[in-house]
């Protein structure tokens, strides 16, 4: 049973560019959440998708957008990259909206130069 | 923003000793969870305690929750080298928000 898979694992971009990160949830899960983790910090909630809709959003600007597909996989898009967007981006899946245990992927390490 | 903080920020102990980490939070919660993260990789769920529970055990883990003090503690007994990792508490508040708010983490090092 595959867990949460994320791609790419590492990527380097320059300021002003755009990036798309992808996530496939654990089998049987229909809810995907994205978190940003800066070096030395705890993860911060970006947004959550359920039934292909954004259900909840954290304190992130509109440059951060997402999408969920009918197969429950999800994308995170970040436009007009800033140096401060350098972080580990974590995808987590769960079954349903109620937060119980979250299953995390290994993350996508984004470096903005 | 972070919900709260873990204490201590870093902890080094000898293998076989017990490790205790504390977490404080700010708002009323529905549940509190502890996660482990190895070297900046994905997080692994350890244990969940609901707001109406005071203590919970899972293997070598013991979690306590004091909602009056808005604090929790994680005890790892008989530590092993493989327990070396960062530990985070995360809270789900009871305002209907469907998100987890993580603390700043405790970096635990087990010395063989």
Structural class of chain A: mainly beta
Q: Beta fraction of the residues of chain A?
A: over 45%
Rounded to the nearest angstrom, the radius of gyration of chain A is 13 Å
Strand content of chain B: over 45%
Tell me the greatest interface.
Answer: A-B, 30 and 25 residues
Note poorly predicted spans of chain A: none
Average of the residue pLDDT scores of chain B: 91
How would the global form of chain B be characterised? globular
Structural class of chain B: mainly beta
Q: What's the overall geometry of chain A?
A: globular
Gap from first CA to last CA of chain B: 36 Å
User: Roughly what percent helix of chain B?
Assistant: under 10%
- Regarding quaternary structure, how should these chains be classified? heterodimer
State the low-pLDDT regions of chain B, or none. Answer: none
Order of helices and strands of chain B: EEEEEEEEEEE
Report the span from N to C terminus of chain A: 37 Å
């Amino acid at each position: 049973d595959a867990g949460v898979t994320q791609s790419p694992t590492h990527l380097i971009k320059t300021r002003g560019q755009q990036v798309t990160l992808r996530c496939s949830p654990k089998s049987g899960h229909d809810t995907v959440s994205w978190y940003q983790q800066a070096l030395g910090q705890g993860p911060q909630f970006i947004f959550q998708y359920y039934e292909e809709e954004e259900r909840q959003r954290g304190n992130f600007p509109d440059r951060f957008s997402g999408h969920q597909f009918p197969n429950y996989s999800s994308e995170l898009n970040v436009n007009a990259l800033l140096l401060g967007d350098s972080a580990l981006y974590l995808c987590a899946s769960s079954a349903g909206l109620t937060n119980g245990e979250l299953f995390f992927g290994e993350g996508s390490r984004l470096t903005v130069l | 923003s972070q919900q709260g903080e873990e204490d201590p920020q870093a902890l080094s102990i000898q293998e076989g000793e017990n490790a205790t980490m504390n977490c404080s939070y700010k708002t009323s919660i529905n549940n509190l969870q502890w996660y482990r993260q190895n070297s900046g990789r994905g997080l692994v769920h350890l244990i969940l305690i609901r707001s109406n529970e005071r203590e919970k055990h899972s293997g070598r883990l013991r979690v306590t929750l004091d909602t009056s003090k808005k604090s929790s503690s994680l005890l790892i007994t008989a530590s092993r080298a493989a327990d070396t990792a960062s530990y985070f508490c995360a809270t789900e508040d009871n305002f209907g928000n469907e998100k987890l708010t993580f603390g700043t983490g405790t970096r635990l090092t087990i010395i063989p």
